[in-house]
Amino acid sequence: MTRSLCGVLAAVTLFIFGFASNASAIPTFSRKYQTSCSTCHYAYPKLNKFGRTFLNNGFRYPEGEDPSYTKEEPTKLGADSYKQVFPDAIWPSDIPGTGPVSLRLINRTNFRPVEPKSSFEFPHELEFLFGGTLGESFSFFGEVEYEHADEFAYGFYLQYNAKPGFNIKVGTVDPAPIPDHMRLTASHFGYLNMRVSDSGWRLRDGQSGLELWGAMDGPNGRGGFKYQFGMVNGQNTDSNDDVDSDKDFYSIFSYKFGGLGRAGGTEAASASSAFWKDNSFTIGINTYNGNSTYGDGFENSFSVFGVFADIWLGRLNLWNATQFHTDDNPKANSLMERKGLASSTEADFVLYPWLIGFARYDYIDSYRGDGVEATKYVVPGLTAMIRANVKVTFEMQLRLDEAGEKKDKYVIGVDFAM
C-alpha cells in the first residue's frame, strides 16, 4: 500500500504542477476587484482577517471604500437622481457587470486498510458558486452542489446590509459558530457531526430561515463584537417544507480581542504578503433550541449550548469548539433524556504562505454515561496552494476508538476554483 500511495502522490503532484500554469482563471470576487484569492482567503475556503471583514461588510470593502477598489463596473438599474424623487420613482440599484458565477471542482483519491484499498473520486464534488452585491444595501450568496450520482444540494441567501452592525439575512442560514464549509480538511468538523436523536438532526446542516446579525469594531478599531440571532425550520421535508409548525431558534455571540477590527478599516485593504497574520483572541458562546419529529410522530425537544475560542498568533491559528446537547426524547419514544458532548480542536500552521500544516482532534459522545466509548479522530495533514486558486491536500483520518479499528482513511485532494 505504501508503494502505491507514493506512486499516486508523485503522479498527482506532477499533474498539478503541469496543469497549474494554465489555471489563471479567478473566482467572482477576484474578477470584480482584480485581486488574488489570497486577499480574502488563508487557504480557500478558509478566510483570513480581511476575508472575515469583507464578509461582515456584505461582500464589500469596509469604510465605504468599495467603489474605489471595484475594477469591474456594475450595471446601473436607474439613475442616481431617482433618489431625489423617491417615492415617485423606483430607488436605483445595480447588478454585477458580468455573471457572478464561479466554479469549484474537488477531486479525491482515498486509501483504506481494507477493501477497496484505493478509490478515485473524480470528481468528488462539483460546485457552482454565485455571490455579489445589489446596489448599496443588498448582497447575496449561493451554491448549487453536485456530489456523486444521487446527491444534489443547494443553498442561497439574500441579505439587507444597513451597516456592518445591522443586517437581515433571508434564505439558507448557518447556525454553526465555526462553519464547516470553511474548513481546510476533507473530513467534516466532528463537533458539528453529532446526531443524538433518531430524527438525524445535526448542527452541521444549513437551515431555511431568517437571521439578524451584525459586527462592530472594538476600542481603537481593533477586534470587536459579533452577534447572530436566527429562526429556522429545523427539519425540512424533501419538498423543502417544515415538518411541523414549530420553529427552531439559535444565537451566536463572540468578542474578538486585538487584530483587525471586525467591521474593518482602510488598513484591511493594504497589500501585505502576511495575509495569514491577525494576532488576536476570539471567544464566544452559541445556543440552539428546537424540536425534531421522527418515526410515527415521535417528538423530541432538544437544546444545544456551546463555547468556542479562536486564537491567531503569528503563523499559528488554534481553535476549539465544544457543544453540549440535551435531548428529552431522542430514541423512539423512550422518554429518556440523553446528554451528548462533541468537541473539535484544530491547529493550523503556516510553514510558507503557500504551505500549511494542520492537525485536528475530534471527540463525539452522543450519549454520555451509556458505557459506549466515544468516537475519536485525529486528522493531520498538509495543504499546498500550488496557485492562489489551485490546491493539493494530503490528510490522514485516524480513528482512536476501538470501534474505529481498520477504519482509518488517507485522502489526497486536488481542488481548483475559477
| Percent in strands | over 45%
CATH fold descriptor = Porin
Q: Give the second-level CATH assignment, the architecture.
A: Beta Barrel
Strands ordered across the widest β-sheet: 5-6-7-8-9-10-11-12-13-14-15-16-17-18-19-20
The radius of gyration over CA amounts to 22 Å
Q: Gap between N and C termini, in Å?
A: 34 Å
**What is the helix/strand order?**
HHEEHHEHEEEEEEEEEEEEEEEEE
CATH class type: Mainly Beta
How much helical structure, as a percent, in the residues?
Answer: under 10%
**Low-confidence region ranges:** 1-26
The SS-based structural class is mainly beta
Strand tally is: 20
How many discrete structural domains? 1
Give the overall silhouette. Answer: globular
Note the total helix count: 5
CATH superfamily: Porin
Query: How would you state the average pLDDT, rounded?
Result: 86
Give your account of this protein's structure.
The chain has 418 residues and is mostly beta strands. The chain has one domain (2-417): Porin (Beta Barrel), CATH 2.40.160.10. It is built from 5 helices and 20 strands. The protein has helices at residues 2-20, 28-33, 49-56, 66-69, 82-85; strands at 41-43, 46-47, 75-77, 93-95, 101-111, 118-134, 138-147, 151-163, 166-173, 207-217, 222-232, 248-260, 280-294, 298-313, 316-327, 338-352, 355-365, 375-387, 390-399, 409-417. The strands form 3 sheets. It has a 16-stranded antiparallel beta barrel. The chain has a two-stranded antiparallel sheet with strand order 1-2. A two-stranded antiparallel sheet has the order 3-4. Strand 16 and strand 17 (355-365) form a beta hairpin. The protein is globular, with a radius of gyration of 22 Å.
